[in-house]
Structure formats: structure tokens, C-alpha cells
Amino acid sequence: MWKQEFEPRGPQGPDDREPQAANLGRLVAVAVAAAAALAFASLMPGPLVAPVMRDLLLVSAFGAVAAAALRREPLFAPAVTAWDQAALLLLLSLLLGFCVDPAAVAETLRDLDAGIAAGINAGIDPGVDPGHAPEIPVAAGGAPA
After folding, report:
1. I need a surface site. Which of 30, 56, 74, 92 has the fewest CB within 10 A?
2. Burial 103-133 (b: 16+ CB within 10 A, else e)
């Protein structure tokens, strides 16, 4: 048989497999962080989704910076590091900042504040004025009829 030459930079070389797996892992972590931020932000009213997601991605970026600093990862490396992960999360956060409508956010927060003050979130029917709530008939023993 013939002797195969070992090409470390070729498609079968060990140097190409490990960094790709590490790179993929870091990029998957960014995608998971973005998906989790979207999942939590989607619980908010419509105009608040972008600002909440922006803030969650910013917190995730700070977490990636802390992880990179604690692991003492090099700032410039051939593979994707936690520093790169933090940069991607920060970029996503900054891009979402451009999607925020401050007027709509302020209006939504005013509406939520008014709703809380009126007792809507406490289980009272929004169609009923809290000062004029219907009375619940009570039986002689004190239990509702």
C-alpha cells in the first residue's frame, strides 16, 4: 500500500475538528441566550418586548465577560472565546436598542401603572369600577351564598 501523508491543516486534521466544535458550542450558547431572552421578554406587553430583551441580552453579555475573565481566556484567539460571545451578545443588545420606541414604552408603563392602581391586576374585572364593585350576597353563616 502507499503511505498517506498527514496534513494537519486538511479536512481530516485534528486542528480543524476541535476548534470547530468549540466555535459551534460558543455560537450555540449565544443562540440559546438570545432564545431565552426572547422567551422571557415575550411575557411582557408588546412595546416592552424589545427593551426587556435588550436588557436581558446585556446582562448575558456581562455574564460572558465575567466568565471570560474568571477563566483568563485570551482576548485574541484563533477560536471563538467567551470574549467573542460577549461581543455578539452586546451587538445583539445594541441592535435591539434601535428597535425601542420610547413613546410607546412610556405609554405602556403609564397604562400598567394605572391598571395596578385601579386594581385590575388584583383580580377585579376591568369593566367594573373598583369604587363601585358589585356586592356579593352573603348567607346568614357568613359564607357566600
Report:
1. 74
2. eebeebeeeeeeeeeebbeeeeeeeeeeeee
CB atoms closer than 10 angstroms to residue 36: 14
Residue 31 and residue 37: Cα distance in Å, rounded?
10
Q: Which three cell numbers stand for residue 63?
A: 455574564
The full DSSP string for 70-129 is HHT--SS-SS--HHHHHHHHHHHHHHHHTT--HHHHHHHHHHHHHHHHHTGGGT--TTS-
Cell numbers at 112, concatenated: 400598567
Q: pTM, whole model, 2 decimals?
A: 0.67
Q: Which three cell numbers stand for residue 40?
A: 422571557
Mean pLDDT (the chain) is: 80
pLDDT at 13: 43
| Cβ count within 10 A of residue 32 | 11
Q: How far is CA 46 from the centre of its chain?
A: 15
* Predicted local distance difference test score (pLDDT) of residue 22: 75
Q: Which three cell numbers, joined as nine digits, stand for 52?
A: 426587556
